[in-house]
Amino acid sequence: MPRQYPLEQTRNIGIIAHIDAGKTTVTERILFYTGKKHKIGEVHEGEAEMDWMEQERERGITITSAATTCFWDMPDWLGGGKCRINIIDTPGHVDFTAEVERSLRVLDGGVTVFDGVAGVEPQSETVWRQADKYTVPRIAFINKMDRIGADFYADLKSIHERLTKNAHPIQLPIGASETFKGMIDLFTQKAIYFLDDEGKKFEERDVPEDMRALVKEYREKLVEAVATHDEVLTTMYLEAKEISIADLKRVMRKATIANEFVPVLCGSALKNKGVQQLLDAVAAYLPSPVDVPDIEGTDVRDSETKMTRKLSDDEPLAALAFKVATDPYVGRLTFVRVYSGKLESGSYVYNSSRDRKERVARILLMHANHREDITEAYAGDIVAVVGLKDTFTGHTLCDEDHRILLESITFPEPVIRVAIEPKTKQDQERMGMALSKLAEEDPTFRVSTDDETLQTIIAGMGELHLEIIVERMKREFKVEANVGAPQVAYKETITAEAEAEGKYIKQSGGRGQYGHCWLRVRPRERGKGYEFIDEIKGGSIPKEYIGPIEKGVREAMNNGVLAGYPVVDVEAEVYDGSFHEVDSSEAAFKIAGSMAFREAFKRGKPVLLEPIMKVEVVTPESYMGDVIGDINSKRGQVNDMTDRMGVKVVHARIPLSELFGYATTLRGMTQGRASYNMELSHYQSVPHTIAEQIIAGTKK
Fold first, then answer.
1. Last residue of a domain, which of 484, 500, 520?
2. For 618-647, what is each residue's pLDDT tens digit?
3. Is 17 labeled as ligand-binding?
4. Annotation-wise, does 22 bind a ligand?
5. Distance CA 19, CA 305 (A)
6. Binding site annotation covers 474?
7. Which residues form the Tr-type G domain (predicted)?
8. Which percentage of the chain shows pLDDT scores above 90?
9. Could you tell me which of 653, 657, 661, 658 has the C-alpha nearest to residue 679?
10. Is 19 annotated as a binding residue?
């Protein structure tokens, strides 16, 4: 079946924001206006179509990124026709940043939603930085203009101060909070008023008298900002010549795609105002797959050799798996972005990350939790595939005769861990399977066994994250479990260079065991991870034993020498050793590598690292003294204090270990009037006295 929609008319976009900015409501309205649904789903009534897990409907938040496809009209100046929009609705809660990260990796453009009252919030900054990392062009939508206290211009100021100076409004609101009636289009200089509750009908009128000076001022700013991105327009602007609307829009599209311009729109998704204009902007200014650079990868056999694939159906297949989900009806679903070539149901593909072939049983086009079978997916498509057994998040699928390895997706390390145990014998058998399936789906969720207590430990990005994992075990896998108190996921590292010898010799009749190596360990910059270096000269250790030595080092890193926490940010270099012609084996060198690493680590002045959280507290001014005093008592550091709509906002860095139960403390201290949110800032050394308590096992 040939391609139905030209690539130029495809948009792969994500809707991203802080929790409660109204992302899911915006997506629901998009589905309503594009004809995908006939009834408007309200998030606060638990009806939203994109939120398809039971916990999402109950909590009114989005946990996993639902993918859906819809259609809208292309603007005439881009040739008209139908625009196919693939939308991924991402979560805004900090515990689910992995979902945002993997969505942005495969998208071409984004709509960032801001709360008209709160402006830029901590998670808005996080998702903005994630989008910067993957150079995703964006449109900003200032939502909730109907709320009391909504202030478009204050929001715009906070975007300029905290995110980018390149954000420019292409609309201005008419009124705010209960007087919000519509918006002014700064291109046409016409006022748009909505005529019905569903926002389907609107009409253009002249700009209200009291807004004319403001509209003139902002239009001049817009024209000047757009003109700077094109030499011809710059000349016309300097010569005070009239620039056509089509030319302004054409250049603005080019600048937006180049990540040099962010168009800002406004509206109220809940009150059905401004979403159709937002859809127009998505079609007009966000890139098609053709507008983004060709995908780059490396040669499977040589990671130094760079390769590119053009975005074309005629190129060999290259696709990236960005999400794994378990569906109650079809089983394991792998969400895939096709970058080049085509994917056909019934065909075999090569997983270059795992070096194995996989069969594509079915290809599904997803709409929230409904699905449609298709026979082929083309370059630029985002689809779900059934039948891939060994393909996980970040894996590359390609043509076996034209192998390529695309850059994988990186995820943050878990910061919180709890012990979990099954309630009954039957639960015990099912729990292992349930946890491994959930870990397959979520790369920031880890499962391990404590070597000493033999307890199962689960780790994740926050208390809510682990709560939802336990809930899903109960609902989807019928596993009841007891969960221990949350613990901090500490890490261990070294602060000095050290070296040590690892020698494993065993003689017990017959063939013996002999492995011997010298290791040097060095500290690495925080966040740089682990590196292994082979500096063996003159064959003192044969090549085939270097791999086992590294394996031994990696295994030793799972449990550090201080308190058994994982080791991070260390370089290990094997530089000398010896072997025995008969007795040496891979197993012996693995043990020697592990022994050498543990001894060198002890000599390298090891320290414990703890997660430090970036915390934002919003509180009435009368409680400021108590809030700041409490932060200081928690080993916290206040970074700054600002005003927002009659309340004070405190930004601080506080160790995670001090924040368990903080919600209750803050409520009690402020009579329930303050709120807070937090996200991981960085890891740093634990003060010596506290480290001693943790190592002694007294600090839980």
1. 484
2. 888 999 999 999 999 999 999 999 887 678
3. yes
4. yes
5. 41
6. no
7. 8-290
8. 50
9. 653
10. yes
Specify whether 338 is located in the same domain as 427. Answer: no
Q: Which residue has the tokens 């550090």?
A: 560
23 labeled part of a ligand binding site: yes
Q: pLDDT tens digits for 145-200? A: 999 999 999 999 999 988 899 999 999 999 988 889 899 999 999 999 988 776 66
Is 146 annotated among the ligand-binding residues? yes
Task: Give the closest residue to 389 by CA, choosing from 326, 295, 483.
Answer: 326
Asked whether residue 143 is marked as a ligand-binding residue, the answer is yes
- pLDDT for residue 118 is more than 90: no
93 is annotated as contributing to ligand binding = yes
pLDDT score of 246 more than 90: yes
- From the number of C-beta atoms within 10 Å of its C-beta (0-12, 13-18, 19+), residue 75 rates as middle
Place of tokens 């057994």: 389
Confidence (pLDDT) at 36: 53
Residue 21 marked ligand-binding: yes
How many other CB atoms sit within 10 Å of the CB of residue 33? 20
* Token pair recorded at residue 191: 């006022």
Domain count, the chain: 5
Where does the pLDDT of residue 60 fall: very low under 50, low under 70, confident under 90, or very high at 90 and above? Answer: very low
Contacts of 215 (CB under 8 A, 6+ apart): 172, 184, 186, 189, 207
Beta bridge partners of 649: 618, 642
24 marked as binding residue = yes
252 is in an annotated binding site: no
Nearest C-alpha neighbor of 107 from the set 377, 350, 280, 320: 320
Most confident of 95-99, 148-152, 516-520: 516-520
Q: Does 89 count as an annotated binding residue?
A: yes
Rounded to whole angstroms, the Cα distance separating 224 from 82 reads 31
In a domain, 413, yes or no: no
* 366 in a labelled binding site: no
What whole-number distance in Å separates Cα of residue 285 and Cα of residue 265? 12
Check which CATH number belongs to the domain holding 303 and give it.
2.40.30.10
- Paired with 492 in beta bridges are 567, 608
Do the domain assignments include residue 87?
Answer: yes
